[in-house]
Design goal:
With about 300 residues, this protein is mainly beta. The protein contains 3 helices and 17 strands. A hairpin with a 4-residue loop joins β3 and β4.
């Protein structure tokens, strides 16, 4: 018995030794807001994995003359890591299946890897270290030509429309603000893209993408999000010859439902509905999308 009692001080001392603590993402950032990939609050060591599925189609050109219909099913696999409270590093690799058909009913099909996107989000202002109400960040990164050239059964390259990437390096730069007010949260962002020349001398036009979103979350398990997404596209060119098809402006109304079936898991279901289309000779269908994000 005396030997057992002599071990009590040693046991108490072992319990007083500090060890690393583990906490969910909500506890670590001090905010219970459900967030999609790219809109989360940062804290040092945050690691997030996500995958997103999108299905969409569009038709370019004039019907019965030179129309080209494109359909795509795309899955983006993403990872984001915060080595510091002010920095998020991210990478996204798309897996795509695409079908292109022209007015002659000739069809091309391609599937495989698309162009990877790598980026960083630098938070330049937060009104407080823990559970901030306002976050301002700078987005910087680029798309990389990781998609291989797609070829038909005879080894000939498919058309540019059927390719899963442009084969160019496309840097981007943007600004983002996030605000949090009790059950409500808000997001505003603007990102500019400046593509370089890629396959067959093609160069996509400079683009500006914007998002204005608000989210209402009455429960820790679900939230409703409504966004207006805009895209302004400049004319593309091939070896300096401009092509105005596809240039102009388009706006989408984007309702989403966010669900958290378990801690650190966010499921997002939504649709992007084109409500204002000023793109030249382009008809865009709604974009269906579903995603899941997990914090490790």
């Amino acid at each position: 018995m005396w030997k057992s009692l002599s071990l009590i001080p040693l046991l108490v001392a072992s319990l007083l030794v500090p060890t690393a603590g583990l906490a969910c993402a909500t506890c670590s950032c001090g905010d219970p807001t459900l967030t999609s990939m790219g809109t989360e609050q940062p804290f040092a060591g945050r690691l997030r994995l996500a995958t997103q599925l999108r299905a969409w189609s569009q038709t370019t050109g004039q019907e019965a003359i030179d129309a080209v219909s494109l359909r795509e099913l795309r899955m983006d696999v993403s990872v984001a890591y915060a080595p510091a409270p002010w920095l998020f590093l991210s990478a996204t690799l798309p897996l795509q299946a695409r079908t292109v058909q022209d007015v002659s009913l000739a069809r091309e099909t391609a599937w495989g890897l698309g162009d990877m996107e790598v980026g960083a989000k630098v938070f330049v202002f937060r009104d407080r270290d823990f559970s901030p109400d306002n976050l301002f960040g700078i987005l910087v990164g680029t798309r990389l030509p990781t998609s291989p050239t797609q070829r038909d059964a005879t080894g000939r390259p498919l058309s540019l429309d059927a390719q899963l990437g442009t084969g160019s390096v496309d840097p981007f730069l943007g600004l983002a603000w996030s605000g949090f007010r009790a059950d409500w949260s808000f997001l505003a962002s603007a990102t500019g893209y400046l593509p370089t020349r890629g396959r067959e001398g093609f160069r996509a036009g400079a683009a500006l993408r914007t998002t204005l979103a608000t989210q209402f979350q009455p429960s820790p398990r679900w939230a409703l999000r409504l966004a207006v997404d805009g895209r302004l596209e400049g004319p593309s060119d091939t070896f300096g010859v401009k092509d105005p098809v596809g240039s102009g402006f388009i706006a989408f109304l984007s309702p989403d439902l966010l669900l958290s079936p378990t801690t650190d898991v966010v499921v997002q279901l939504g649709v992007r509905v084109p409500v204002l289309n000023r793109l030249r000779n382009v008809h865009q269908t709604p974009i269906l999308q579903a995603s899941i994000a997990y914090d490790l």
